[in-house]
Give the backbone structure.
Amino acid sequence: MRHPDTTSTAPTPARAARPAPGPTMVERAYDHLLDMLMSLRIAPGERIAIDTVARQLGISQTPVREAMSQLEAEKLVYKMPNVGYRASPQMTRHEVRDLYTLRQLIEPYAAARAAEAMTDEAIATLRAIDRDMSGVADGDARAYARFAEADAALHRLIATASGNRLIADTIERLHAHLHIFRALYATNAPHEAAREHRAIIDALVAHDPAAAEQAVRHHLLCSQQRMDDVLAETTPST
């Protein structure tokens, strides 16, 4: 005698998609501290209390220490025995020159590679960046902040589009230091820099590696001169 088939033929319900993982506690601490440093809410040379940061974020001190170690490796903070961490002091004139020497070695090359790899999406982003930069008015603090964000976005896009992760990571670290310096001294010169950036953007949109490389090189020379002029007025030559 055959027994009825008791195997269920009902479809198996699909598993709910797992939500995308959020940032880890270390990443939260790192992003928080980086934002505080770059906005000057933690000033150069200021002590950073790990227990205070942990309380602010509602997390333990361990991930904050790990985030501090990352920032120390990037030279944004430093550790003093029996004192703890402090924000790195502002760059000297010599350090600014060294930083720009490194930028001249890698960013023109990155721009040339990025020009070869421009997508429609990247070009649309470049157009938006150009509009943000062109709309800046001197003396408007909020517009200046938008300009700084657009400036960082342009260099980040070039770094990423270069296709070289090591170059991209290096450029990102360099720009963190520069952003802090600019916030201290307001050296962006929005209208001048906007013209220089437009030449870079035009070359990238045209997929012209040679023009992109030259435009970035020219911009870096001009930017370095602006920073050097400010430092010459405010600090002794070192």
Q: What stands out?
A: The chain has nine helices and three strands. The radius of gyration is 23 Å. Residues 5 and 41 are 71 Å apart (CA to CA). The first helix runs from residue 25 to 38.
